[in-house]
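task queued by scheduler; priority normal; single chain, no ligands, no partner chains; default sampling; output format set to structure tokens
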Amino acid sequence: MAGLSSAAVQLQPTQLDGQSVDPNLLQKLEEASNTILASPSADQRHAAEQFLLDFRKTKTPYTICCCLMEQTRNDYVIFQCACTLKEAILREWTQQSPQNIHTLKDFLMQFVLNRPSLAVYVREEIVLTVAVIVKRGTLGTSADDRNHFISQLTKLIHADNGAARVVGLSTLAALLTEYGGNGKGTDFGLSWEFHLRCKKVFEDKELLTVFMVLLEALQQLAGLDSVPADWETLALIAKLLALAEQILTWRFSLPLYILIGMASGAEWNFILCF
């Protein structure tokens, strides 16, 4: 991925939060994860679930989670780390510097690109975390920063590497879900006005670009003398068409001053917006 190298995103122990990693923590997480995925007794399941829930509440867990993700091959542990990062960055957004947030986003993108064999649910949680970071920063970042990110996704979608294309499209799908305001997005714990503003910015600045990226990818496939009938290509076409349809049926926002007034009114007004 252009602009992302492993050296550029490698997290040093003090780069994000200054915490060191308990050498026994990974073992405990893997044991709890294996217990959840097995057929434990009720007491064993409860103990494992409680341990994972407590882990999800860790303060400033960025270095810890990133190190654990690199050290383990247990998909469920990686999933729990991604969930923890997503919840923490939303909870502690104002405490993190823009550089730390950017570093975390880059790390997650590079990680998912470097692990093409991740289980689908794990990959989707990681790119969802990336999409949440992008949306949360909408009102505080420049259009150039967001355009650069869309440009990076475009390169992935047009890559020869099938795994890279999957990551690019999955991230794009997560962005559309988060910005779409269809009730399927992440709970940020912020006002509806925040979501309305983010949605309007995305519609005005990035949505058309995303649509053109999808059309170009479809046109590229349509221009082939013969489209491969393998599962990977068919899945790619289906994903491109689904995302294009999502944009074609997009429920566009009304002018912002109307949206803000409606968001502060009755519930039916909110439904009209979304």
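post-processing summary
- The two ends are 34 Å apart (CA to CA).
- Residues 1-15, 266-274 have pLDDT under 50 and may be disordered.
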